[in-house]
Amino acid sequence: MNFSLRMVNLWIGLCKGVPGLPKDLRRLGYDVKGIEYPFANSNSRDVKPELTVVSDDLGHTILLECKSGANTDAEQLQRYADVKANDLTSKAFVSRRGAQSHDTLILGLPEHEMRLTRGISSANCNFPLVIARDDGLELVCNKFRPSELNDKVFSPKLAIPLDCQTLSFVPFDTESDLWVVADNVMPLLLEYMHKRETVVMLDKVCADMFQGLWTAIGGEQQKTLRNKMRSVLILASQEHFGRYLEVQSNSGQRGKTLTWDIRNNPLDLSTDKRRKEFRLLSRLQKQFIDSLRDNKEAKCQRYFDF
């Protein structure tokens, strides 16, 4: 999982109060509002934070921008600097209470701390810079507008064993290879089979995969993610899982979600045959994912052909 995805999942977990993580952000009322949700600033120029979290309790919004490298983009920072409260309420659908104040948070890696600090300073932006260290998140440059974040949450740092994080609220992004998408979609398919589901609906796959956060994702990002999940299921039904999945002939038309029938469900068999079939399903899942990983170029072309 890349740095941006790790940070997005970590911050979602912090806002949701996931067991094992500090509850500070949750207690302050922060919740997820948008994931890669673009909106226009006061100068009609787009910004697209990786994550937008809002606390009505504090009257504060945080726009997260993750930097895995050492360079900042002065023009991008200026676009964030031009975000006003009205932009948040009218275009990013933040509540008036939550938009009373806001910060653009830059998240970076320890090896790039000095370069990122200089970049923020050179752009004349007072954006807080938080560095993701092995033992937690440290505020190293500038301050948040609410004193509670500076004096309590990040004083001296928000202690988290980052190397232990396996959160997957957002298991993949628009840049993820198709095999990574399949590595998440196929276990969900097997879960449906375990539950004796008779059909697989693409809309349900999207909602279940992103654990209730699907509607928080920006439209263009949604479209790309949806197409990747759709492609994985189509390829699976055409190849390794053809015995178990069959697309319904009229689905995907006239606004109907694309739907597959689940056939030959092992749970419908006797105990002995069921055990054998589930072992086969596990092997097929691995073979299918490996085929996508080993043949990225060809599979990618087929993805765009759908």
Structure, described:
The protein has helices spanning 3-16, 24-27, 74-81, 85-91, 113-122, 147-153, 178-194, 202-209, 219-238, 271-294, 296-305, and strands at residues 30-35, 39-40, 46-47, 51-55, 60-67, 101-108, 129-133, 136-141, 158-159, 199-201, 245-247, 259-262. The protein is an alpha+beta fold. The strands form three sheets. The chain has a seven-stranded mixed sheet with strand order 1-4-5-6-7-8-9, with helices on both faces. Helix 5 (113-122) links the parallel strand 6 (101-108) and strand 7 (129-133). The longest helix has 24 residues, at 271-294. The protein starts with a helix and ends with a helix.
Order of strands in the sheet with most strands: 1-4-5-6-7-8-9
* Mean pLDDT across all amino acids: 91
What name is given to the CATH topology of the largest domain?
Answer: Trna Endonuclease, Chain: A, domain 1
The CATH architecture category of the largest domain equals 3-Layer(aba) Sandwich
Write the layout of secondary structure elements.
Elements (H helix, E strand, L loop, with lengths): L2 H14 L7 H4 L2 E6 L3 E2 L5 E2 L3 E5 L4 E8 L6 H8 L3 H7 L9 E8 L4 H10 L6 E5 L2 E6 L5 H7 L4 E2 L18 H17 L4 E3 H8 L9 H20 L6 E3 L11 E4 L8 H24 L1 H10 L1
Parallel strand pairs: 5-6, 6-7
Antiparallel strand pairs: 1-4, 2-3, 4-5, 7-8, 8-9, 10-12, 11-12
Helix pairs in contact: 7-9, 7-10
